[in-house]
Amino acid sequence: MNTQPMPVGQAPDAFVPVVTSLLGTDLYKFTMLQPMLHSMPANLAEYRFVCRNTPAYPLCEIRDEVERQIEHLCSLQFTEDELQYLGGLRYLKSDFIDFLRIFRLQHRYITVAVDGDDLSIVAKGPQIHVMLFEIFVLAIVNEVYFRRFATPQALAEGRKRLSQKVAQLRDFGARGQQRQHPFEFFDFGVRRRFSATWQDEVVATFAREVPEFFKGTSNVYLAKKYGIVPIGTMAHEYLQTFQATGVQLKGFQKAALENWVQEYRGDLGVALTDVVGMDAFLADFDLYFAKLFDGLRHDSGDPVLWGEKALAHYTRLKVNAHTKRLVFSDGLDIPAALGLYEHFADRIQTGFGIGTNLSNDMGLAPLNIVMKLVSCNGQPVAKLSDSPGKTICDDETFLAYLRQVFRIGT
Fold first, then answer.
1. pLDDT digits over 339-349, tens only?
2. Known InterPro entries for this protein (predicted)?
3. d(CA 151, CA 128)
4. The model's pTM
5. Whose CA is closest to 325, among 403, 271, 397?
6. In the chain, where are the structural domains located?
């Protein structure tokens, strides 16, 4: 196991950086940034931090350290070795790599303040310059917050639970319950991880102990380090951006998917479905897109109901579901992933992106934090989730209009 020490017992003034490489983010930040650079480089955007649950102590107490970490983050640049790795991914183009060569996150585009007991973090400016803040800010807040709990006991509990996960997977393999398509899972744990060191240990452990099931990570730095596949395509912000880029609102999903198809020409073919709900997505996901995209990603609502709707849609379009994939990524753990696999894997390929339960299962209550796009080009944007509590929008008038356009709740 990785034995790099946890930041336990550090002197109060000792600075230990959370982020040490700009590769240490989710792959989809790069795969979304490239089409935005090519198609809409002048977009202006605002991203806002939100904590959805009650932390064990007020987040305002870590404001100064978060600020120090962001200052350090803004000093980083991609190394030539990192750029060479990114350039080896066939879907990333040479002009995009050249952009990254001169790229630095700009401190002037982000503010960290205190709002009562809460943290207020806002990134606002050119979208191609502020969108990469999201994952780094979430990783910083998480690690700084959990440093107070980084005890030998917490690490021992995390290792015990990690061993149990490995045992669950080995038991599954020993039972020989493979369906028509194989079971595959991925680490999606950057944003809510206990620490960078702990995520590294988790990924290294799964890659070593159960490589037949563990097929990649969203963390590009760790994918490079361990020679495994970086995983990711698009997030909500990509589709939401098209709500404010001049297309008719009712056509924003089609515009976003078409832009993706033209950018990647067959690569990165998993589409996210829940920006305005699965039903509204499928109404736009016609035969053209169903044939061009390799599959769909679930991130809210009942996963079984969602998967059955996807299968029924492919059947209506006379598309062979065995050639497609359903990727589940909403609050999963290993048993839930195996249960969904057993339900679907004789009918369609599956994949499972597991986040917090892999990278922050230490016997401590995780933070439920997000940093979401709230406006673009001076206009509000929204996510109408299939799960209560996940809907995000600052403008109730726009939210009502979006519901009306897509006939949601009528």
1. 999 999 999 99
2. N/Namide_PRibTrfase (IPR041525), NAPRTase_N (IPR040727), Nic_PRibTrfase (IPR006406), Nic_PRibTrfase-Fam (IPR007229), Nicotinate_pribotase-like_C (IPR036068)
3. 38
4. 0.94
5. 271
6. 152-359
